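Repro:
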Amino acid sequence: MAERIPMSTLTLHRHNEATQPLRLLSNAASAATQAVTTTAKKISSQLLLDGARELVIQHQGNEYHLRLTRNDKLILTK
């Protein structure tokens, strides 16, 4: 039987593009990513906006604007 190589040590190369390797996530990293996304906190946009059409979010010294459009879509801009 062939020796097993951990997925985190493998790299793939596109045909004729050997200088741009593609990386594979290990099964552990993939599982960790799924765990993070399934445990994300949920909050309704109505609760965040509290009747307003815009919310300013401060993050690492920057301001981001969460806006509610006329078509009831959300847009986040810096």
